[in-house]
Amino acid sequence: MHRVWNFSAGPATLPTEVLLQVQEELLDWHGAGCGVMEMSHRGKEFTGILEAAEADLRELLGIPAQYKVLFLQGGATQQFAQVPMNLLAGDQDRRSADYIVTGSWSKKAFKEAQRIGQVRQAASVEAKGQVADGFTRLPRADELDLDPQAAYLHLCTNETIHGVEVHDDAALAALLPAGVPLVADMSSHILSRPVDVSRYGLIYAGAQKNIGPSGVTLVIVREDLLGRAPAGIPTVMDYQVMADNGSMLNTPPTFAIYVAGLVFQWLKRQGGLAGMQAINREKAELVYAAIDASQGFYKNPVAADCRSCMNIPFTLAKPELDKPFLAEAQAAGLLGLKGHKSVGGMRASIYNAMPLDGVRALVHFMNDFAAKNA
Ligand code: PMP
């Protein structure tokens, strides 16, 4: 068997230990005589798997008791709609929601919410015509135009395409008008470091980066935000109904939840989120150092204080070298480095499951390639 270093932005590499355990349990889970994919979601085996996954997630993130954890379907894209459907449409006093636009994903969320209700752009840092589509930093406090009556303030705490990450949750929370809940799309950096969940009203994340296979979407929601959906909302879209049914109104994505549960256990063995953060910082520093020391051969346009530890976009000074870079990287066993089509260049996604050795191999290759082609 041959496994490469996979830098794909998602679906992304999973911990080898987890995959091996899945393989071992695939046909017969713990003596059940069948695999998790094949068992009833209402049986005691799967119920136990779901409960353990939730308990481990609560422990990892330190989720306070007054928050519900939902395992939903539809991806983060469904949350772009489900958030306003639940938190905006039914609230008679708070009829508008604020969106901070820091990259393609928050822009998509903002556009989708416009289909549901009234939303305002509380800040955008898009500067057209620049590298990486112009999204290269977070807005400063004096650039924010926040509605104190907003139903919520939405942001994406890690822009997967542009590599812009919110590192200082506390500073962000301090800007919030009293009573306005913060809603965060954490799809591409959840579980990469500790987070103070109590600063957020709702956190959502698709699974296929740091959680497990695509198909399950995590929603962590403060209880007082439940039950705000207007009458007439489709049942399956109502957070309250999903919470009341323990994410089992209908058949949940059982296999994805099972693998996510194994990833949570793996994370606990890495020293939890603090342990993971230390490793992630080390990995990211290696790549940024290689870029910054390349004398302009490679360039990452993101402001230093918000460079992502998970997704590192970079361009080559000579775009004609893009193709040879990718071809030689692949030959060296480094996969998935092509940047998103909207920004071009390269992107190294170095999620939790990418080992330090994989990052070392990438940096070695980058240095070598620069030396040969400078
Ligand atoms: N938000 C972010 C930050 C993402 O990175 C992605 C997917 N790459 C999405 C939303 C959309 O996720 P999904 O494909 O699960 O709907």
Could you characterize the architecture of this molecule?
This protein has 374 residues and is α/β, with parallel strands linked by helices. It folds into two domains: 17-269, 3-Layer(aba) Sandwich (Aspartate Aminotransferase, domain 2); 273-373, Aspartate Aminotransferase, domain 1. The protein contains ten helices and 14 strands. The protein has helices spanning 16-25, 44-61, 75-87, 104-114, 169-175, 239-244, 254-269, 272-292, 322-331, 356-373, and strands spanning 5-6, 67-72, 96-101, 118-124, 153-156, 158-159, 164-165, 182-185, 202-206, 217-222, 298-299, 311-316, 334-335, 346-349. It has a seven-stranded mixed beta sheet. A hairpin with a 4-residue loop joins strand 6 and strand 7. Helix 1 packs across helix 7, helix 2 packs across helix 7 (254-269) and helix 3 packs across helix 4 (104-114). The longest helix has 21 residues, at 272-292. The two termini are 35 Å apart. 4'-deoxy-4'-aminopyridoxal-5'-phosphate binds next to helix 3. 4'-deoxy-4'-aminopyridoxal-5'-phosphate (PMP) binds at residues 10, 75-77, 105, 156, 160, 185, 187-188, 206.
Short structural summary:
By secondary structure, the protein is α/β, with parallel strands linked by helices. It has helices at about 15-25, 45-60, 75-85, 105-115, 170-175, 240-245, 255-270, 270-290, 320-330, 355-374; strands spanning about 5, 65-70, 95-100, 120-125, 155, 160, 165, 180-185, 200-205, 215-220, 300, 310-315, 335, 345-350. About 35% of the residues lie in helices and about 15% in strands.
